[in-house]
Amino acid sequence: MTYYQEHKAERQAYQKAHYQKHKDELQAYGKEHYQEHKAERQAYQKAYNKAHYQENKAYYQDNKDEILAHYQENKAERQVYYQENKVKILASQKVYGKAYREEHKAERNAHKARRRAIKIKATPKWLTKDHYKQMLRWYERAIELGLTVDHIIPLNSSVVCGLHVPWNMQLLTASENSSKGNKFVVIWKYDPISNLHS
Hints:
Helices cover 70% and strands 4% of the residues. The chain has helices spanning 3-6, 8-21, 23-36, 38-51, 53-62, 64-73, 75-84, 86-103, 105-119, 129-145, 174-180, 192-197; strands spanning 148-151, 169-172. Strands 1-2 form a two-stranded antiparallel sheet.
């Protein structure tokens, strides 16, 4: 038996007592350290998950039953913790959610536009990943320039209906977009090609 195994219970009791005695101090330090290194930790975690995606996926598939069983075993404990810390958890989620929405505003706008287009069958099935990347770039540019993304040929018009594709997009001010409505109007103030790649 190793020294660690022999004194395991003693060490755990000491660590628990030490934590309880210095709980506020340790939590304050942990929070400060997390905020200070938040961007670095997030970047590392994102890169790690991407690099080990297949490995993590395979591990989950191989241990799926055990993982789900563990989840069910701790379900009651998690529910109790949630109820006891509900206000704090919801406040944290609200702050995180707002930050996430701001950070991913372009992606959210592109996704919303795509969903609207799908509803009226304006998104062709033959679009490629590159096409979707180009459309995402339109929404990124719109945010950068403080403009809105408009479909040159409206997706829903009594005259002609356009498609939700990158070459049917232009950048307009909010007032220009509002006055244009569902009319077929090309405003070359912001050239589609140059704005897409600049």
